[in-house]
Every structure is written in structure tokens, then in C-alpha cells.
Amino acid sequence: MSISALMLVYVALALGALSVVGIFSELRRRRFGPAHPEDRVFRCKKCGNVYTDDADVDRSRCAQCGKLNEPVVY
Ligand SMILES: [Zn+2]
């Protein structure tokens, strides 16, 4: 086996390991990320846009029109 073939195998293995790590971190992020139970839900009084923000935010700015909104309380 030549040197260049060895380097190709090495690079392919490194890329493979990187993509495996990326897939695992992506799966972990999906499991705990978007469905964050502490997130507050906001509904814009101006344009009706529904969005979420962190729980420690009392008022959040609408991403569409920029109006500050109170969190929706269930
Ligand atoms: Zn809005």
C-alpha cells in the first residue's frame, strides 16, 4: 500500500469519526433542544406570531414586527 493510499484511508477515517460525533450531538440536541419544557410561549398582540423564548425572560420581542409581548400563561 502506498503512502498516498494510507493518507487517504487516514483522512476517510477521521472524517467518518467526525461525522459520527456530529450525528450523535445532533440527536442529543434534538432530544433536549426544541421541546424545552421551561421555555415560555409568546403570542404577538400585533401580528399574531407565536414563538418561544427562555423562561427567565419576562417580555420578549416579536421576531416579525419587533413588538414586546407578555408570555402566554396556561
Ligand atoms: Zn409581531
Instruction: Report Rg.
Output: 22 Å
Termini Cα gap: 66 Å
Question: What proportion of the residues form beta strands (DSSP E)?
Answer: 15-25%
Question: On the 0-100 scale, what is the average pLDDT?
Answer: 88
- The structural class is alpha+beta
Spatial shape:
rod-shaped
Would you report the number of β strands? 5
Bound compounds, each kind once, are: zinc ion
What is the count of DSSP helices, taking H or I runs of 4+ residues?
Answer: 1
The largest beta-sheet arranges its strands as 2-1-5
Main β sheet profile? 3 strands, antiparallel
**Low-pLDDT residue spans:** none
What is the helix content? Answer: 40-55%
> Could you spell the SSE succession in H and E letters?
HEEEEE
Name the features.
single chain; 74 residues; 1 helix; 19% strand; rod-shaped; binds zinc ion
Question: How would you explain this protein's 3D organization?
Answer:
With 74 residues, the chain is an alpha+beta fold. Helices cover 41% and strands 19% of the residues. The chain has one helix spanning 3-32, and strands at 40-43, 50-53, 60-61, 68-69, 71-72. Strands 2-1-5 form a three-stranded antiparallel beta sheet, with no helix packed on it. It has a two-stranded antiparallel ribbon with strand order 3-4. A hairpin with a 6-residue loop joins strand 1 and strand 2. The radius of gyration is 22 Å and the shape is rod-shaped. The mean pLDDT is 88. Zinc ion binds next to loops.
